[in-house]
Design brief:
alpha/beta; Rossmann fold; 3 domains; binds iron/sulfur cluster
């Protein structure tokens, strides 16, 4: 098979199937070859790839998919979010691969009533996809056309959320109804940004219950009464009591029991929604569904979303046990989660794909990664980029800790050190990872560079602050606790970056606390991945450079216990100052 794969790669290059003049960068062709060979050695196996910025992991995923598909296999490319999906879409277009991309239903509009697809005219009338495919508007229905192309193509692009819904909820439903599964198990799947899989799976299966749910159910009930459609029989007081139980009872067993009651209520609303759609089909045959009915249907849809999450979650807890529940009661909402993430990932993700490739620029320690992600017997590939890091050292100043105990004594000294570093980089822009808003506020209060510093409070303000920082011609320094991921600070946008505080996950979050108690390895792994993500913000291409400073002494302890978490591209640049 080795030779066939190599010949296929030659054919792809000679015939410019990846675009005119396409050439692999160093290491890419070998990695594609290794991935395809591994598939043929064992089509149920798994590969984990650590691919730092500059290695072109999306090209590796696409070229491997092209080879495997040309050899008669079908697969999925799965991205973590819509932004990355858009980037893949433009790469697919640039490389002339003609693979379809599909997103969640509400990213598409119904061409008849202008509503999101889930409230499209056919959906409001309770039509299934088969009935909709006979409508005159079917040819202009962006979602259904995209979906059809994605189902029929040998390779298609999806995001985690869509893939998880299709491979779990939709597959189960279709099998129960003995109907064909649209997005079935395929031969191979590439998961990008795979360091986020634990978070993605957790959040996908986390029900959030708030008091708006009571309003929605009451509105739905009133609509049923007004339109003489059989109701659910629940009074407002009863609904208030049920939701309050979920949101206020203290113990896991009590919350679990109250969620089971809520599940029955939500199923009742789901049945009512089906009656409403049937009636809408009868009343509005041949013309558009009226606005008040559309509004009611939105309400029923939102109740249905909650019902799906609650049902999936209860099913999971029945399997793993009530002691694995994590409850986060807040005034505005209650979130229920599960600490057994490796099991969740196995059940919802590993068992739903064939040959799997997990790729990330920040895998951290590969053994810990695999253990935490429920991956057994994977092959690990670490790629190197062609970056010259001589001008991008990582300087660790091992002097002052900022733990709870040391904070008050050391803070003035660390801020003084921060000021010295900012002085040294006069005329250059940079960023400071503060670890928390508290530290950010102390820096703003006590730093002598207050006029160079730019800061923000919350994610909305961050976007605006970042835009101003990016375009500024002055030597500004952007500071905040959430600059670790997703920012492209290439070239002069950032020539230095300072880790004021090591970004340990906050123990105030009950899920983080439960996960840390279950596995200290997870806590350290997560912290290392955040540091690697942060370090990667300012060196983006082969010519780029930036100096990184770590001025929180607790990094020494993290390094000591987790030296395998940091790849050579990090450790070889590390200089420690006492
Ligand atoms: S099939 Fe027609 S009615 Fe249904 S969502 Fe698409 S465009 Fe709208």
């Amino acid at each position: 098979m080795k030779q066939e794969i190599s010949q296929e790669l030659d054919f792809i290059l000679i015939n410019e199937l990846l675009g005119q003049g396409f050439e692999f960068r160093s290491g890419q062709r070998e990695t594609v070859q290794a991935i395809c060979e591994a598939y043929y050695e064992d089509p149920e196996s798994t590969i984990v790839i650590d691919a730092p910025t500059g290695t072109g992991k999306s090209i590796i995923a696409m070229a491997s998919s092209l080879v495997l598909s040309r050899l008669g296999n079908k697969g999925y490319l799965v991205t973590s979010d819509l932004m990355l999906q858009d980037q893949y879409e433009s790469d697919i277009y640039r490389l002339r691969l003609h693979w379809p991309s599909i997103k969640g239903v509400d990213n598409y509009e119904c061409s008849v009533n202008g509503q999101p697809f889930s409230l499209g005219d056919c959906k409001l009338k309770g039509m299934g996809y088969e009935q909709a495919s006979r409508l005159h508007c079917y040819g202009s229905c962006e979602y259904l056309q995209n979906r059809k192309r994605a189902i029929e193509s040998t390779v298609c692009l999806l995001n985690y959320s869509y893939w998880l819904i299709q491979r779990n909820y939709v597959e189960k439903k279709m099998e129960q109804e003995q109907r064909p599964v649209p997005f079935e198990r395929r031969d191979f799947v590439f998961f990008d940004e795979a360091h986020k899989i634990d978070e993605v799976v957790q959040s996908h299966f986390t029900p959030r219950i708030d008091r708006m749910l009571i309003d929605r159910m009451v509105q739905a009930e009133n609509f049923l009464i007004r339109n003489q459609i059989e109701g659910t029989g629940y009074t407002k007081t009863r609904l208030q009591n049920i939701v309050s139980d979920v949101m206020m009872l203290p113990g896991k067993a009590q919350v679990f029991e109250s969620m089971q009651v809520l599940e029955r209520v939500l199923i009742g609303y789901n049945k009512a929604a089906r009656r409403v759609k049937k009636e809408a089909n009868r009343r509005f045959k041949g013309h558009e569904v009226s606005k008040d009915w559309q509004k009611a249907m939105t309400t029923f849809e939102r109740i249905k979303d909650t019902r799906c999450k609650v049902q999936d979650y209860l099913e999971l807890i029945r399997e793993v046990g009530i002691d694995k529940m994590v409850i986060d009661h807040k005034q505005e909402e209650t979130k229920t989660m599960c600490v057994e993430e490796a099991k969740m990932i196995k059940k919802y993700l590993h068992e739903k794909g064939g040959f799997k490739v997990f790729m990330s620029a920040t895998i951290g320690d590969p053994n810990t990664y695999m253990k935490l992600m429920g991956i057994e017997n994977a092959r690990f590939i670490r790629l190197g980029n062609q970056f010259d890091y001589k001008k991008s050292p990582i300087v660790f100043v091992n002097r002052f800790g900022l733990s709870h105990r040391e904070k008050e004594t050391n803070l003035p000294k660390v801020i003084q050190l921060l000021d010295q570093i900012i002085d040294k980089h006069k005329g250059q822009k940079g960023i400071v990872h503060t670890g928390s808003y508290d530290f950010k506020n102390r820096i703003i209060k006590d730093s002598k560079h207050v006029f160079r510093l730019m800061h923000y409070d919350g994610s909305k303000e961050k976007e605006g602050a970042f835009d101003v920082f990016k375009t500024s011609k002055e030597d500004k320094v952007l500071i905040g606790p959430s600059l670790l991921e997703g920012l492209d600070l290439k070239d002069d946008t950032s020539r230095f970056q300072i880790f004021f505080k090591i970004p340990y996950p906050s123990m105030v979050d009950p899920l983080i606390k439960a996960k840390m108690e279950a596995s200290r390895d997870w806590y350290n792994w997560k912290t290392s991945v955040s540091i690697l993500q942060g370090v990667g913000r300012s060196v983006r291409n082969e010519e780029d450079w930036a100096v990184t400073y770590i001025i929180d002494a607790s990094f020494g302890t993290l390094m000591y216990h987790n030296s395998d978490a940091f790849p050579p591209s990090f450790t070889e640049r590390l200089k420690t100052l006492k």
